[in-house]
Every structure is written in C-alpha cells, then in structure tokens.
Amino acid sequence: MTDTTLTLDGADPKRLIYESLRIPGITPDECRSIFVDWALSLPVGVQPADAARLLLDQYAPKVATAGESAHPMLQILVEGARQPSADQPRRRGGRAGRFAE
C-alpha cells in the first residue's frame, strides 16, 4: 500500500510558489502566470485545490509574519483552493465535446 499524503515537495515541486512569495513588488498578473506554471508542474494525481490549500497553510502565516499579508500570490492561492461546484460546467474534449447526448 502506498502513502498518498500530500507533502510540501509534492505541492510545490519546482518551488515556484515559494519563490514568488519572495519577489518584492510582484504583480497579480505575474502571480497568475506563475500559478499556471505551478499547476502544470504538479505531479500526476495531485489535485491543484488540495495543493493550494496545503501551500496556504504552510506559507500564509510566514508571509503575514513578514508583514505582507496582502501579497497577491496569497489571493491567487485562495482562488485556486476553491473546489469547483458539482453543477459547474466542465470541459468535455474529444468526441463527447462535439456531439450532444
């Protein structure tokens, strides 16, 4: 049986989020771009919302202690941590996307 516990290394494998929090004067647009790169670099099977929640738990207190509670990456992570609702439309690729049921 394998352990599926999400770790900090699994949630931020390239340390993109960690490094973005250290960039002074980073803009929300730059944070969004980094967030997309981060989401694409997650290991297979890691849910971005779960990873974002773990990163918020880990990094938000440290950023707040440093006096930067309004860091734009924290807001991006909060948005990314939200689970999509069950009734939200989902993208359907391939044949299923071209032909209505």
In short:
This protein has 6 helices and no strands. Helix content is 55%, strand content 0%.
Explain how this protein is built.
The protein contains 6 helices and no strands. It is mainly α and 101 residues long. The chain has one domain.
* Helical segment count: 6
**Amount of helix:** 55-70%
State the separation between the terminal residues, measured CA to CA. Answer: 39 Å
Question: Taking Cα atoms only, what radius of gyration do you get, to the nearest Å?
Answer: 16 Å
Q: Largest sheet, if any? A: none
Approximately what portion of the residues adopt beta-strand conformation? under 5%
> How many domains make up the coordinates?
1
- Record field, number of beta strands: 0
What class would the helix/strand composition place it in? mainly alpha
Average predicted confidence as pLDDT = 84
Name the shape in a single word: globular
What is the N-to-C order of secondary-structure elements (H for helix, E for strand)? HHHHHH
Low-confidence runs (pLDDT<50, min 5 residues)? none
